[in-house]
Amino acid sequence: MGNETLLEERQLIVQSAVMTLLQQVDLPILLSMVAGGRDQFVSHAKRHWVGHGFTDAEFRDAFRLVEDRAVELTPMERQ
User: Fold this and answer.
1) For 18-48, how does the pLDDT look when each residue is reduced to its tens digit (9 = 90+)?
2) pTM here?
3) Which residues contact residue 38 at a Cβ distance below 8 angstroms, ignoring those fewer than 6 apart?
4) Percentages of the chain per state (helix, strand, coil), in multiples of 5
5) Which has the closest alpha carbon to 44: 36, 10, 52?
6) Strand, coil or helix: what is 13?
7) How many CA atoms does the CB half-sphere of 41 hold within 13 Å?
8) 77 phi and psi, to 5 degrees?
9) Main-chain dihedrals φ then ψ at residue 58, nearest 5 degrees
10) 3: which of 13, 31, 67, 74 is 20 to 30 A away, CA to CA?
11) What is the share, in percent, of the chain residues with pLDDT greater than 70?
12) Does residue 50 contact residue 36 with C-beta atoms inside 8 Å?
């Protein structure tokens, strides 16, 4: 239970950070973050999400969540 619970709690903290971020930005900003790519997102996030002790993998997971949300909000083109 110990390590597994800790990992689940860490995932929840990352998800919470992403949800807070998503509440603060509109769709154009969200899309520009995704367009900038993971490395740019992680570099920026590391300067602003301090005190959590996020690992590189957690920052990458956060970007994946941001990407997923951008896909959900972007209307699909119909051909």
Assistant:
1) 999 999 999 999 999 999 999 999 999 999 9
2) 0.86
3) 60, 63
4) 80, 0, 20
5) 36
6) helix
7) 24
8) -80, 135
9) -70, -35
10) 67
11) 95
12) no
How many residues in the chain? 79
Residues 6+ away with beta carbon under 8 Å from 10: 58
Whether the CB-CB separation of 77 and 32 falls below 8 Å is answered with no
Q: Which amino acid is at 7?
A: L
Here the tokens at position 24 are: 């603060």
Termini Cα distance of the chain = 49
Please, are residues 31 and 70 in contact by the beta-carbon 8 Å criterion? yes
Please tell me what DSSP assigns to residue 53: -
* Single-letter amino acid, residue 56: D
Nearest alpha carbon to residue 21 among 66, 74, 67: 66
Q: How far apart are CA 7 and CA 1, in angstroms?
A: 10
45: its two tokens:
């996030």
